[in-house]
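Subject: Protein entry, chain in single-letter code together with its fold tokens

Category: Structural biology, sequence-to-fold work with a learned token vocabulary.

Notation: Tokens come from a learned vocabulary of local backbone shapes, not from coordinates.

Start of record: The labelled sequence and token lines come straight after this line.
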Amino acid sequence: MLAINLIIVFLLTVIASIVISLTIVCYRITFYSDRKKKNTEEYPTPEGEIYDPYREQMISWMKETRKLAHKEVSVTSFDGLKLCGNYYEYEKGAPVELMFHGYRGTGERDLCGGVQRCFRLKRNVLVVDQRASGRSEGKTITFGINESRDVLSWIDFILNQNGKDTKIILTGISMGAATVLTAAGRDLPENVVCVLADCSYSSPKEIIQKVTAESGMPPKLVYPFMKLAARVFGHFRLGETSPMDAMKRCKVPIILIHGEADDFVPCDMSRRIFDACSSSAKLLYTVPKAGHGLSYLVDTEGYFKALSNFCTANNI
């Protein structure tokens, strides 16, 4: 009997060790961000061959933006992190476009060209480094869940600095798009007049399972460990909310942009988000032959015209 009990204890210990080890690995690979690991490139651009034809333009936009007058700003998040951004002023009293970058990116890398586009639309711009990215504090990326709460902190900052009547446009790309769409399901002030989401995923679960499957691992088996990792080490609930959930409660005008050749976040995710969106004013603009995050680079004028026309039609 003693031997059987020892075997049971041994097996339970082995199982527990495997679960803990897998959970730690899932957290480190998916959610953990080491901000001490510096990018040594003078002008960092996204990795991947699909970006090669556009790197020169990205770097040119970065150089132009670095020369523009700006103010380094910061807020404190709901959980005590210092979050940083750069504020660019077109003119006092103009609407402010609040911009959020993608997964493991930075504001400068993922939103290069964004400041120039906003100035063409006569808007001021606040480009944010999301939590656990760039100059902002934190160690855990939460796929737009806690980041959407950070949006509220940045909105309060803008209203305090620029005035309580300031119009605000929320903009994001990739995970940043998921961030602003998720925020659209929260209790936003009337100052938020539009949300622009470029190549958003439909939910953290769907994009994690897609990437897991493409890595050769069984997504239904791995995902519970992802949820556990998020809860135990990241201190957030991975299934708490999503862009799709938020769209059921959304009231502000929504612009969805997506490249039809996006093989990382499929364009169909934006189509489903559009169908789920309860806003009375919404637009889906897709760009043929554009890969992930490349719609503005592939179709700059078409992208700009779509935004301009939508904003004019909805008094934004």
Summary: The two ends are 76 Å apart (CA to CA). The beta strands are 71-76, 82-88, 96-100, 124-129, 168-173, 192-198, 254-259, 282-287. The mean pLDDT is 93.
